[in-house]
Design brief:
By secondary structure, this protein is mainly alpha-helical. Helix content is 76%, strand content 0%.
């Protein structure tokens, strides 16, 4: 491959990135953000685009820049034990704890719940998740081309329908923007920033990035320069499309409050808006498409997680892991979409900053000569702060510590207090490495 990359190839890779990140679950958060932000939608949306679009694409670029073949190798620059622990936690988050169960929740909320009575109880969700994850398990045990075909056929149809929906919502908005609710009245940008965590795309970028890098290499790219040229331009294509869809969905959510009111989650918002514009047939069509799209995503996640954990625990077969993950995900899904999102917030608040810092350290790796102490110092202080942010998210408050952090750390009150400690920790790590060097004990990780 020459340095001059064909535009058609860049577009293909960009669309591939977009398709990987824009799963059905990502549809539910921008409308909810729009409903909550109201008249403050634009600043809230800007924050969301940073963590929902910018950081995930930076994660892909970081993998290409690092030259590593997988996340565990990249994270092992900190320490081999950290490499295993962080990678395991990440796969659990984008797998059976949050992302896989969500693939069952979203289609139920969009395609089934709107047609049920308010007193239907938990049985419909139980039945739906049993069927949904049984099919997931079947396909995961016997990977078939039908899953790939359905994904390729459904994705354009789904995006076309969503595109028509948001265009109609833009041309003929349901109503005017309303007053913001909750923290969106005072800190819309930072709340939008944290809302982007829920997409889990920055975490997923470490997994998706490998697929993109391999696809580029398969086309003949050999050097880091060639890989980064394609990656950079392709991520630009994906960023434009993602930002357009997210912003449009946020606008749709913000304009829906006047007539539809504040709804429990983004899945219900999509269903209600679709029904408002296209009647019950629109809701049925949207529900069917999202159900099959989520099924394809679910199969992919179960397969990738089973493969990773089989590599980690070779004595446990892939088949056993796939069955176990499917059953566990079905159980977790039955707590409901709104509750699942609420549970995921503190966990993602705690681990997301680690992923962000690891991405930026990857780009500065050569600057500090790959010294492990820099990674260790930066990530240690980051984790200390983000851990307390996560605990605050579940209502566990350490008042004296919170007061102390608020006094010394800029932006701690908006969940970004880890930024300064991450920088300071890196410098402390670099200083300690210099001292170790004098005694011949310093080491670095490639």
């Amino acid at each position: 491959m020459s340095d001059k990359v064909p535009f058609s190839f860049i577009v293909v890779i960009g669309l591939m990135l977009f398709a990987l990140f824009f799963g059905a679950g990502n549809l539910i958060f921008p409308p909810m953000l729009g409903q909550s932000a109201g008249i403050n939608i634009w600043s809230a949306n800007a924050g969301f685009l940073i963590t929902g679009v910018g950081l995930p694409l930076l994660g892909v670029l970081a993998l290409g820049f690092s030259g590593k073949d997988d996340l565990q190798s990249l994270a092992s620059r900190v320490h081999p034990v950290f490499g295993i622990v962080f990678t395991t936690i990440l796969y659990l988050a984008i797998g059976p704890l949050f992302a896989i169960p969500r693939t069952g929740n979203v289609p139920f909320e969009v395609g089934v719940k709107p047609f049920l009575s308010e007193n239907s109880g938990p049985i419909p969700l139980l039945i739906f998740t049993i069927v949904f994850f049984s099919i997931t398990c079947l396909f995961s045990l016997n990977p078939a081309k039908i899953v790939e075909i359905v994904g390729k056929v459904l994705t354009p149809i789904k995006l076309t329908f969503i595109g028509v929906l948001v265009v109609v919502a833009l041309i003929h908005p349901i109503g005017d923007f309303q007053a913001p609710v909750k923290d969106y009245s005072v800190q819309p940008f930072f709340n939008g920033f944290r809302e982007g965590y829920l997409t889990m795309d920055t975490l997923a970028s470490f997994v998706f990035g490998i697929m993109i890098i391999n696809a580029i290499k398969d086309k003949g790219a050999k050097t880091k320069k060639q890989i980064m040229i394609v990656c950079g331009k392709a991520t630009g294509v994906a960023a434009i499309i993602l930002a357009t869809f997210y912003t449009s969905l946020s606008y749709m959510g913000a304009s829906s409050v006047e007539k539809l009111g504040h709804l429990d989650n983004g899945g219900i918002i999509l269903a209600k808006v679709s029904e408002y514009y296209f009647g019950s047939y629109g809701g049925i069509l949207l529900g069917l498409m999202i159900t099959v799209a989520c099924l394809t995503t679910s199969v992919g996640l179960v397969s990738s997680c089973s493969t990773y954990f089989h590599k980690l625990f070779p004595k446990i077969s892939y088949k056993t892991l796939a069955i176990s993950l499917s059953i566990f995900s079905a159980i977790v899904a039955n707590i409901g979409l709104t509750q699942l999102i609420a549970i995921s917030v503190p966990v993602l608040t705690a681990i997301y900053p680690l992923a962000i810092v690891l991405i930026f350290l990857t780009f500065f790796h050569s600057l500090f000569k790959g010294k492990a102490e820099v990674y260790q110092g930066s990530l240690l202080l980051t984790f200390i702060i983000s851990l307390f942010d996560g605990l605050n998210g579940v209502g566990i408050h350490f008042t004296s510590i919170d007061h102390f952090f608020n006094a010394i750390l800029p932006m701690y009150d908006v969940g970004l207090g880890w930024i300064i400690p991450a920088i300071v920790g890196g410098f402390i790590g670099y200083g300690s490495s210099i001292l170790r060097e004098k005694f011949g004990l310093n080491h670095q990780l490639d």
